[in-house]
Specification:
By secondary structure, the protein is an alpha/beta fold. The protein is built from 11 helices and 13 strands. Helix 4 (110-120) packs antiparallel against helix 5 and helix 5 runs parallel beside helix 6. The longest helix is centred in the middle third of the chain and has 16 residues, at 163-178. It is elongated and about 70 Å long.
Length: 297
């Protein structure tokens, strides 16, 4: 059984302006999935729908075979959730926040909670309002991890943290749950984090899923082609090619991203456009994201 199954998800906040337009997403047990997209691409909306915090307008959602809207308690007891904008009661002490979560989750692991508290060096008597942003996020992560969820959803959880705190935060989440095979879906603007930690990447673009591939597939079966400027219609001609995901016109050449390895992309461009002096290469996740997000599709 899949951990998360989302099919044909539609959601708009303004008439005629879809945030999600027919999105499908399946996550299998044990996967670590990095969710990418520009601001406003729908990452937070998708995760909130998965949690049952927001209602999709059409489509179906199942977690562990359950509907998060019809069976919210059964679902939430098996899910951990941390977001950049998560607010903990600032008047409570850390120990009170932890005790509150402990009372809500029958599977709470006291040893894990204690070990995480020691790792984060969080003072149990400190009030939430006295903590730094990073410390408050650590408390939220402790509470999300210590009931050993089957699925952990992280919505930009390390946003705004310095690089060291960000790395510690995300690696703690991955390491703490790796031994139990917990499934993790996390969104992040820090593409180096996604490339280092995720086994699979899902990129939202133009209200849909543009890329859904393993990290190995991205490194081996996607490429960037640098096509010389010849005619005014070079961008349109490239976009019309199968497996072209996006183009961006630069001063040196037209940069086109293909769901093909470099040799396949070079052969396709030569065959269809008659252009042979094309330089094609594989690219890292960050470069590929920039070319797609900053270009045309």
């Amino acid at each position: 059984m899949n951990i998360l199954q989302m099919h044909d998800i539609h959601r708009s906040f303004e008439p005629g302006v879809p945030v999600l337009d027919g999105v499908d997403l399946t996550v299998e047990p044990g996967e670590v999935v990095g969710l990418l997209g520009r601001n406003g691409a729908g990452k937070t909306t998708l995760l909130h729908i998965a949690m049952g915090m927001l209602h999709q307008q059409t489509g179906t959602v199942e977690l562990f075979g359950l509907d998060p809207l019809k069976q919210p308690i059964d679902v939430k007891r098996r899910v951990g959730f941390v977001s950049e904008n998560q607010i903990l009661p600032d008047y409570l002490r850390v120990r009170d926040v932890v005790a509150l979560h402990q009372s809500l989750f029958p599977a709470w692991d006291e040893t894990m909670a204690r070990d995480l508290g020691e790792r984060f060096t969080i003072k149990p008597n400190a009030r939430i309002k006295t903590l730094s942003k990073g410390q408050a996020r650590q408390v939220a992560l402790l509470c999300a991890l210590s009931h050993r969820p089957e699925l952990l959803l992280l919505d930009e959880p390390a946003g705004g943290l310095d690089p060291l705190a960000r790395r510690e935060f995300l690696e703690t989440a991955i390491e703490a749950l790796n031994e139990t095979g917990t499934t993790i879906v996390f969104s992040s603007h820090y593409l180096s984090d996604v490339e280092r930690l995720a086994g699979r990447v899902v990129m939202l673009h133009d209200a849909g899923v543009l890329i859904d591939a393993s990290m190995d597939e991205l490194h081996e079966s996607f490429s960037i082609a640098l096509v010389p400027h010849r005619t005014q219609g070079t961008c349109d001609a490239l976009l019309a090619l199968p497996e072209c995901l996006g183009v961006r016109s630069r001063t040196d050449a037209v940069h086109a991203v293909f769901r093909l390895d470099p040799e396949e992309a070079r052969e396709l461009i030569a065959e269809r456009l008659g252009v042979t002096d094309v330089f094609c290469r594989t690219a890292g996740l960050e470069e590929m994201f920039i070319e797609i997000a900053g270009g045309e599709r």
